[in-house]
Amino acid sequence: MMQKISVHDLMDLRLLHQIETEPNPKGLCEISLSGRMVLVCLGRDKGEVRVLQDEVSWIRVIKASDLDVTCVALSNNGRLLAAASTKGTLNRLFDTLSGMLLQEMRRGSAFERTEIHSLFFCFDAEWLAVTSNKGTVDILSLKDAKRNNMSLPSLSYNKGILRKYFIPEWPTARFMYQKIYNTS
């Protein structure tokens, strides 16, 4: 069953556009905060993200994952899109103009599912923060990939699962947090 996102003019609440999406129980949708207008939401099919630009006159579909997309973030200027899937081990960074994959950033083991709670760009899109159900906040460098942990074992990893596991960048930093319960 398709769902829709409605775009309204905030001055008179006039309906400008309706966008069909796959089922979207989390209401995933992001809008750029400065510069040109960019809106991202789920696409019509699994793993797709739709990018609407310039007052919804231009639409691009990005295949962000083979699985359902569970989290998206848009940089302030609308140029970068970060997406995570139900598996939660890879976060992907795309250029919204070209739809091109720019970076893959790993967090966690390929064999352990992680629920990504949020993706957040810093104001200048130099860093991406990723929070998860594992009690972690991962910080990933976007402008200087050398800052991300790229220390790899000396293996020949040019094909197969080793390449898929080792080539994506790992976080620059990881913080653990714990739940604090009010007992009063």
From TrEMBL:
Pfam family, one: PROPPIN
Keywords: Repeat, WD repeat
RNA-binding among keywords: no
Keyword Repeat assigned: yes
InterPro entries assigned to the protein according to its UniProt record, in alphabetical order: PROPPIN, WD40/YVTN_repeat-like_dom_sf, WD40_repeat_dom_sf
Family, per entry: Belongs to the WD repeat PROPPIN family.
Record-given protein name: Autophagy-related protein 18a-like
Organism ancestry: Eukaryota, Viridiplantae, Streptophyta, Embryophyta, Tracheophyta
